[in-house]
Amino acid sequence: MGYVISRTGFESVIEKLGQQYRLYAPVRKVGEGRYTDVDVVRYDFVTKFDEIELEAKSDYAFKELLTPLSQTLFFFTENEVKEADFDDRDVIIFLRSCDMHAVKRLDAIYLENKFADPFYERIRKRVKFALIGCAHSYEDCFCVDMGTNRTTEGYLFSIDVAGDEIKSDVACPDVAALFEAADAKAEEVVPAYVTENEVRVTVPEKVPNEIYKHGMWDEYTARCINCGRCNFVCPTCTCYTMQDVFYTDNGKVGERRRVGASCMVDGYTNVAGGGQYRRTNGERMRFKVLHKVYDFRKRFGYDMCVGCGRCDMVCPEYISFANCINKLNDAVNELEGGASK
Ligand code: SF4
Ligand code: SF4
User: Does a structural domain hold residue 175?
Assistant: First the structure.
């Protein structure tokens, strides 16, 4: 069912939802961007409709709400272990279509990858979504070619601002009751979605083994500074590492934390004996790119990258992931045509 509702009416819907759920949405942080006087848009707790940034795309993804950057799993003493408490209140996260598709990737990794991760599962069970319609594409988006530009299910309601009114496709009967109590007008609503992006990518269907030694990766050894920013803004990067933090000098009391990790930074592939699987930044880029647009698909049947373009927005070296996918496709065509670099 769909509704058209006044801004005031929608504000009252949000206020009522806020009494039942913790609401998280993109919020503009004025002056908190990476340069002086630059804003940043990132996810934060909201209680009012006008706190939600609906025009700009968020610089950082929502994923820390499902996979915290630092999460205490349990506490230990000499002879006891206690699982960490967690906040079990229900949550609604406001997401655009590409990020709704990113949730599917997170679920695949944490719930369908041989066994369900209990720490992810207990958070995920508490989380529902509201869809932010995309009336237009943003600078670095390539969602259309990644097939993530449209979402038709998995949300409680959608939001599209149309002048002084809000249009919502409402899937949840309880939320529909809130719209009706706020004098919303029933009308069929299709959430806005983009049908073309300026950035286009062609993802190769198959990748021959020769790609692992291809010269295309040398460019990234020269340009990438292995800062890992691309991983931390990506809604589908899921890697983590473990840290034991000891409270006392004797090292018998402490906590185990799971913290975010990046396949681009030093140390990620270190192994005992001083070994390191991927030393150059080009090798790390190769691993990341093939994981996003090939290896994940071999396992789950669809690509991991959702084309949100955040990694392109954040890279200090102006490395474009979209260009990298296209260069990969060119290299694959060249290899399949018999030529090799
Ligand atoms: S790889 Fe880049 S474009 Fe793809 S989902 Fe991650 S941040 Fe978005
Ligand atoms: S953000 Fe750019 S420079 Fe930093 S690790 Fe990623 S590709 Fe390399």
Answer: yes
Residue 173 lies in a domain: yes
Is pLDDT at 56 greater than 80 in this prediction? yes
Cβ of 32 below 6 Å from ligand 2: no
Residue 305 Cβ inside 6 Å of ligand 1? The answer reads yes
Per-residue pLDDT tens digits for 64-77: 999 999 999 999 99
CA of 270 to the centre of ligand 2 (A): 19
- Looking at residue 248, its pLDDT comes to 79
Core vs surface per residue 219-234: b (16+ CB within 10 A) or e: bbbeebebbbbbbbbb
Write the DSSP assignment of 183-232 as a string of letters: TPEE--------S--SS-----S---GGGGG-GGGHHHHHH-----HHHH
What percent of the chain lies above the pLDDT cut of 70?
A: 99
Ligand 2 pocket residue status of 258, Cβ below 6 Å: no
pTM of the shown model: 0.94
Q: Is the CB of 315 under 6 A from ligand 2?
A: yes
For ligand 2, is residue 143 a contact (CB within 6 Å)? no
Residue 223 inside a domain? The answer is no
| 3, burial (CB in 10 Å: exposed 0-12, middle 13-18, buried 19+) | buried
- Asked if residue 85 has pLDDT above 60, the reply is yes
Q: Which numbered ligand comes closest to the C-alpha of 237?
A: 1
Closest by CA position to 306, among listed 17, 104, 50, 57: 104
Q: How far is CA 268 from CA 33, 35, 243, 295, 296, in A?
A: 27, 28, 14, 19, 19
- Residue-number span of the structural domain to which 176 is assigned: 2-68+86-186
> Could you tell me which of 198, 219, 245 has the C-alpha nearest to residue 70?
245
- Tell whether the model's pLDDT for residue 203 goes beyond 80: yes
Q: What is the mean pLDDT of residues 23-47?
A: 94
Domains of the chain: total: 1
220-246 pLDDT, tens digit per residue, is 999 999 999 999 999 999 999 999 999
Domain assignment present for 201: no
